[in-house]
Protein: Cardiolipin synthase N-terminal domain-containing protein
Amino acid sequence: MISWLLYITAWALAADALRRTSYQWVAADRQRGMWVGLLVLLGPFTLWVYLLVVGPRLLNAPDQPPAALRTS
Structure:
């Protein structure tokens, strides 16, 4: 039962990772595709690393670049 909960949590985090803007991933200095793939395929094993390492960086990253850097 607990293993299913860990997989569901990992998949929810993968969905959250897909929801984040590409600028947030660049600002956090992480690769979105790699982390989404790891969360989907290895779920519970990468869940803790994502929560402790990548999650805080994404939370601190801005959603958009500063106005001076925008190109449209």
